[in-house]
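Ops channel
N.P.: pipeline sanity check, posting one input/output pair.
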């Protein structure tokens, strides 16, 4: 049984530990903005169980660069999130949630983000592509053309088969004597001394 559901921390928001088993792609359903709050943006998504993702300031900057500042435009769009174990908070590596892919961008996007005071580093985001449609089922092979009995049929793999003949083979036609020549009369079996007995004749000495 999958234990993923038991790994979720008791919290009112998505945490980095929720992604310990791997990245997750979410579809935004609503965005709440509370300017004065410590975590001012809450992004709700399908299947969030009431626990939104609250992006840090760096990820908010990435979203604004990619999608613009109007959060109402985010609804219906996709984000792939992953756990970054090296994320710092209060000078300690506590892990954090980062985004790697976004829908509704034309191509890879690079945003310069503040890493430390006075140091900025490029952060690259890739486009999130919609899943490719399933390949259409292979068309059924057309039925083999009717083949006359006794004729050969070439198969696609290079093998040759001969169609079964449902009728018995015709008896060979009797030979026609050549013109000007007479056919020899059939030999006449004669009985008498020294002649071989007929097949149904009794053999002397046996009942």
């Amino acid at each position: 049984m999958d234990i993923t559901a038991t790994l979720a921390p008791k919290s009112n928001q998505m945490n980095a530990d929720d992604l310990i088993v791997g990245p997750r792609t979410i579809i935004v359903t609503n965005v709440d903005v509370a300017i004065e709050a410590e975590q001012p943006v809450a992004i709700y998504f399908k299947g969030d169980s009431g626990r939104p993702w609250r992006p840090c300031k760096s990820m908010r900057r990435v979203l604004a660069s990619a999608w613009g500042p109007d959060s109402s435009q985010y609804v219906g769009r996709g984000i792939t999130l992953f756990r970054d174990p090296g994320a710092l908070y209060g000078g300690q590596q506590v892990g954090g949630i980062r985004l790697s892919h976004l829908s509704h961008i034309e191509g890879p996007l690079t945003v310069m983000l503040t890493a430390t005071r006075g140091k900025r580093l490029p952060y690259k985001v890739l486009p999130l592509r919609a899943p490719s449609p399933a390949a259409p089922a292979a068309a059924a092979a057309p039925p083999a053309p009717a083949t006359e009995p006794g004729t050969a049929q070439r198969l696609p793999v290079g093998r040759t088969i001969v169609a079964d003949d449902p009728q018995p083979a015709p008896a060979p036609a009797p030979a026609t004597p050549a013109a000007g020549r007479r056919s020899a009369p059939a030999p006449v079996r004669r009985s008498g001394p020294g002649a071989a007995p007929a097949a149904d004749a009794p053999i002397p000495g046996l009942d």
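N.P.: looks fine end to end. The longest strand covers residues 24-33.
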